[in-house]
Write a structure and sequence with these properties.
3 domains; mainly alpha; two-stranded antiparallel sheet; 11 helices; Cytochrome Bc1 Complex, Chain D, domain 2; binds heme C; 11% strand
């Protein structure tokens, strides 16, 4: 902080001495630089994991995939996790479902009075922090924004990286992407159980070079990957629900501006036709 305060007047002095062309160039390069920084920041959201992460092929415009993801999320994840910034009614609207559909097929929780949760409510559950801590040592976090904090690649890889580890007394599993995680392998029925493929011993530690499906679940590996991709897609939607709307508006704005450009150009020609 102190450094940047110091360096600013110096930069100013330089600008003041130079010609306006140089000023322009400086502003230009500052804009290019900040754009580049933005791009880099956008791409580095999947940091913080030792293993290579895989990218799911997901499409935010695919409502069927989002519907399947929502279904899997309420069925498998909401027992522990909330998505406490997301409303069911908004989800209905964005995923192309009626509120009756959502109430009948996606709401399995009750509110404080014991009534079925209303469609206008947030996607919460009734787990208390004490219960969460007691059961898992840590409260299962709200997943509404996890696709932003961890990145979609992280979530997709995490849900596929569970392996059997008898040394882990609580859950009996470990995870390559999130070692020592307190979350059990929730989707074991679908995926089955993976065991680690061990490499050569190095410095007293045996590295895990890969995972092998030793006890298949109800799904084939491809089907399981699709399921996890749908869940990831849904988490990505929740982390940025208006992304699709923003894209649509962006395109309309660009079309409008191009139209305006054409009109302005024709007008300019009309004005100047007798002058030059
Ligand atoms: C039995 C309870 C339970 C269920 C069910 C469950 N989780 Fe978790 N989950 C946890 C706990 C506990 C943590 C915290 C793990 C930790 O920090 O070590 C966690 C952490 C996570 C994280 C990491 C969040 C972060 O930013 O650190 C993700 C992502 C996640 N869960 C996704 C899911 C998804 C998707 C499902 C449904 C398929 C699911 N979970 C179902 C208990 C659960």
């Amino acid at each position: 902080m102190i450094r940047s305060e110091h360096s600013q007047p110096v930069a100013h002095a330089q600008v003041a001495n130079s010609s306006s062309m140089a000023k322009l160039a400086l502003t230009g390069s500052a804009i290019v630089l900040s754009l580049a920084m933005l791009l880099i920041a956008g791409n580095s959201s999947a940091a913080g994991s030792a293993v290579a992460l895989e990218s799911p092929r997901i499409d935010q415009g695919n409502q069927r995939s989002l519907q399947r993801g929502a279904q899997a999320f309420v069925n498998n994840c909401m027992g522990c996790h909330t998505a406490n910034y997301q409303r069911y009614s908004r989800l209905a609207q964005d995923l192309g479902l009626s509120e009756e559909d959502v109430a009948a097929n996606l709401i399995f929780t009750t509110d404080e009075a014991g009534e079925p949760t209303k469609v206008g409510a947030l996607m919460a559950n009734n787990m208390t922090t004490e219960y969460g801590k007691q059961s898992f040592g840590v409260m299962p976090p709200n997943l509404a924004l996890t696709a932003r904090s961890r990145g979609v690649d992280w979530i997709y890889s995490f849900l596929r990286a569970y392996y059997v580890d008898p040394t882990r007394t609580g859950t009996g599993v470990n995870n390559l992407v999130y070692p020592g995680t307190a979350m059990p392998h929730i989707l074991w029925e679908q995926q089955g159980w993976q065991t680690p493929i061990l490499g050569e011993e190095e410095n007293g530690a045996v590295p895990i070079t890969g995972l092998e499906l030793t006890s298949p679940g109800t799904m084939t590996p491809e089907e399981y990957d699709d399921l996890v991709a749908d869940i990831t897609n849904f988490l990505a939607y929740m982390a940025d629900p208006i992304k699709q709307t923003r894209h649509r508006i962006g395109i309309i704005v660009m079309l409008f501006l191009f139209g305006l450009l054409a009109i302005a150009y024709i007008l300019k020609k009309e004005y100047w036709k007798d002058v030059v």
